[in-house]
Amino acid sequence: MMYKCPKCKLPMGRAEVGAAGGIGIFKKTGKISAKWSNIHCYVCATCGYIELYAEKPDIFKVDENK
Ligand SMILES: [Zn+2]
What we know:
4 strands; single chain; DNA-binding protein; mainly beta; 4-stranded antiparallel sheet
């Protein structure tokens, strides 16, 4: 998927979010288990603007019936 910088309108390059072993975001689902999603990072090589996307956004779907 191609993302464009909202400021420069130029294509953004894929980057990795730091920390050895991988850093990510997660949703607590109980005492032990948690749903985990890696982060996809895109950076504009012109202005340095960064966008972060969850690899598995469906994990964080809001249940509107609760
Ligand atoms: Zn830019």
